[in-house]
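Can't paste images in this forum, so I'm doing it all in text. The chain is below; anyone willing to post the predicted structure tokens underneath?
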Amino acid sequence: MENVLRPVAVVGGALVITLIAGWLLDLLLRRADARHTETPFWGLLRRCRLPFQLVLCTTLLRGSYRRAGILPDHPVGVGRTLTLVLIAGAAWLLVRFATAVVDSTYARYAAAHPDAARVRRVRTQVTLIQRVVTAVVVVVALAAMLLTFPPMRTLGASMLASAGVLGIVVGIAAQSSLGNLFAGLQIAFGDTVRIGDTVVVDKEWGTVEEITLTFLTVRTWDERRITMPVSYFTNKPYENWSRGGAQMTGTVFWHLDHSAPVNLMREELQRILKDVPEWDGRGGGLAVTDTTPHTVQVRAVVTAHNADDVWTVRCAVRERMITWLLTHHPYALPRITTSEAVPPPTAPAGPDDPTPPGKSSPAGV
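Text version of the structure:
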């Protein structure tokens, strides 16, 4: 009976201590979060409760399983299993803690700096730093778990002895992946493209939605996602409309008849822009930029705070100007002018030709 009650008591005691410690930790973090509303750090740390309880419970069991007699016939298996769970739980706790630190740092920075471009840059950097830290922790945890097995220790020593050769082989085989990895770090700290930037890639306009160490996702205006390797942004040219400020200048073109009232169109453009809330008031002009035998090309220049607003302004100006021309100046719209063709000159009639000059002979005569 003692061999049964002792393991149950030890396991039950470890669970009770773990639950109480987790409840106390959550209570303290909630109070700290209520006192320090200027930072979300303490609230984010509450996500560490579950991995903390796992580490605590495993540690208690790892130190007492032999005395408690938990599966006494398999002490090595029990100890190794608890060690593996402890390593995994510690890695999980470390990742949660690092995520809380990174997220709280970004939140405080975003609240203190109104510059959207700088905030996007910091967001890109901290996101990639968080991914790097997570990857390193996972790799180290997996290596530590493998080294708990005696055969893997010998394998590890052999791998270290041939690290030079393996490094060359891995470098050649993973040249593309390593190139994307270094390109991701270059993007993060070189500030070439950031999360939230408006870019044009392969004639596709969209917003950078996600940046990882190997790929980048662009969300287009029609909600499509374009995924490409990050090395694209370090090896090929692309348009970044968010660099140097988010303000944008757009153009609107019309092809009209030569009789179009350009001066009246300039006045109407100003009235239209004042009614469009997305227009930022920096500029708005109209000029004839080209002419053809049948039409003239009229261009309007408009401005807005960002790429989305300038698109809205362009569409509104184009639509309302066409409506105004249809209503008040329909003659200004392009049309094809036709007239009767001038007949070709005819040769004088000969003495044997009974047809008078300027007349055609009837068919069959």
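Residues 75-112 form the longest helix (38 residues). The chain has a mean pLDDT of 78.
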